[in-house]
Every structure is written in C-alpha cells, then in structure tokens.
Amino acid sequence: MAAEARAIELRQQGIEVISLAAGEPDFDTPERIKDAARRALDAGLTKYTPTSGTRELREAIRLKLKSENELDYDLAEIVASAGGKQAAANVIAALFDEGDEVIIPTPAWVSYAAMVALSGATPKLVPTREADGFILSAERLRGALGPNTRGIIINSPGNPTGAVYQAPQLRALAEVILEAGLWLLSDDVYEHMVYDSVAPHPFTIEPRLKERGIIVNSLSKTYAMTGWRLGFAAGPREVMGAVGRLQGQNSGNPNSITQAAAVEALTGPKDELRTMMEEFRSRRSFVVARVRSLPGLELPHVPAGSFYVFPKVSALFGLKWKGGVVRSGDELADMLLAEARVALVGGTDFGFPEHVRISYANSIANLKTAFERIETALRALGAK
Ligand code: PLP
User: Fold this and answer.
1) Ligand 1 atom 16: the closest Cα is on which residue?
2) Domain 2-23+272-380 falls in which CATH fold?
3) How much is the pTM?
C-alpha cells in the first residue's frame, strides 16, 4: 500500500511510473458480478443485514467450502467480513490475548504481525529458508514452540513468495500443530492462484485440524474485487460466535450491495477466473525468465502460486547511485523508483530485507517496459 502510494504521488507530479507493487489483480470485476450489484441497488438492498452476512451469502460460502475445499461447515460457523483483512483481524483478536505467542512463518504478509500485536499477543516470526522454497518445516515449527505458543498462521499460496505447501509438508506440520494444541489460521486468499498443481487445503489433508483451525478467505483476488471488500472466516462454532460478536461491535455487517454481488461471484460461472489465470500463467513465465536475466537478482525457485516473485537482491548491495548506496531490498526499491520509474516493494516488512517483491498483476506490455527500464538502470550503475 505504501509503495503504491509513492507511485501515485509521483504520477500526480506528472512522472510516469509503472507499478509492480500492487497486491491486487489488474483485471476488472466481471460484468455478471457488477450486474448483481446494480440489481441489488435497484431492489433497495440498502439496509443493515445480519452482522455475519445474509443467509444467502453464508449459504453461498458454505457451498463454496464444500465444493471447492471438500469441507463441511454450517451457517453458524461462517462469518462474512469487510475483506479477508477484517476477517483475519477479527479471528486473531477473538483467539489470542496478552501472554500468548503466535507463530508467523516468514516471509509473510505484513499485516499478520500487526494484527497479532493488536490482539495483545506476541508475534513470533519464524524465518523459512529459501533453499526449502520458503516452506516451514515441521522441525523448524517444533523448534519455535514455547510454553506460551497458542497459534500459527499458514498462508498457502503465499504472499510474498508464491510458495505452495504440498500434502506431505502439511501432514508433517499438522502432527506438530495437533500435538502442541495450537490454533491454525489458514489464509486461503490466493487458493485459486496456482499454476503447477492445486494447493491442497490443510484441513482436507488432515481432517483433525478442522477442529483447531479457522479459514480466512476473500473474494478480493479470485474475483478481482479488492475494492468491494468481502472476505469471510469459517471455523468452530464457539470461535465464530466470538468473531461475530466482535464484528457486531466494531463494524457490523459487510456492505449489503457487496454481499449481493458476492453471492453471484461465488455461485456463477467461473470462466473469468480461468481467463485471468491463463494470463497470469504467461506473465509468470515472462517475469521469472526476465528476473533471472537481470544482473544481481537471484530467483532459484519458480513460485508455484500467487502473482508475486520474491528474488534475493543482496548481490547488488554496495551499488552507488545519486541517492546513496544500496544496502537493502528497500533501498534498491527506492533506487529503482527514482532511476527506472518502476515501483516494487522492499522485503524488510515481509521479514527478508535482502529481497524485493515484484507483483506481476500488470499487463505484459507494462512488464516488458518495466524490466527494460530496470535493466538499463542497473547496468548504468555498473551492476554485473
Ligand atoms: N491475506 C493475504 C496473504 C493478502 O495478501 C491479503 C491482501 O493483500 C489479504 C489477506 C487480504 O485481502 P482483502 O482484505 O482484500 O480480502
């Protein structure tokens, strides 16, 4: 968001910037979903709804969880929120308290640690290894457990690395999670953004996890609906009751028009998703090849999911430019914004300062120009 804001600021000064910083699909929301919103407006669906979402929406979410994830929930176990972000924040606030410790494997989405801290609990950042494809191993999880560890957050496919946990890795983690009696928050927002195989769901792989697990998901990425704000959580009734009560006090129901649009998104044909994914697939090939062709950027693994790559850039540290010396991924991002007019995100806030995140939620034409400009800037500064 901050990197995107800097790009917008420069554009307002008349400087043309290509943004590879965005965490949202560049596609428009499908017309059938917009139509459903127009119909909802015309029908006067402009009033409060039940806090956890209309019955119709929760039924659509229930069916989605059944058909796409093979998981059974009833309506009292589902809460719709204003985005996956609100869903995650409410679940974390409902589950954790002062004195609790919550494990966050890194690199991780920046908001988890803040949400855990806001709940009063302590985020325990556990770095994964690039050599392991940024997958948390059961061993590392076991080594990170302490007497106050109460939960863990898994995000597969992941932001910012694109890593996708496979069934054996999930099974091994599940053993440790169950043994230690942890809560597992499974953030599935990128579940459909996979290229090489499906992303297995932890609760499908190990059904015992479902009793200790809460799903957080969102329509933002799957249906190109980031601005509409519709996410949801599903989990054990007691937890979801608390999440609903919390939401009832801190915000209330998600937007009523958005809820009607979301029913259409979830229950209608999925053709646009396929089209979007075909496009993302070709962009991924292009971006991976191009990143690997640049001096000083290392990307050993082809990310299996999401729409980001997370290369290591430490070989470029020491590079001098008019703004100073590059000593981190963030400073490389500053340099590229100034010298190449390309916005990307430094890795520090994801817990990996030697990396940068590049989003390929942008057209191939823009990606081509962006990488040409990055290459020119790097070579002009003497990168080899
Ligand atoms: N989880 C992850 C890993 C994300 O990257 C994001 C958004 O970038 C979200 C959750 C929340 O998305 P939203 O609040 O738009 O549903």
Assistant:
1) 84
2) Aspartate Aminotransferase, domain 1 (3.90.1150)
3) 0.96
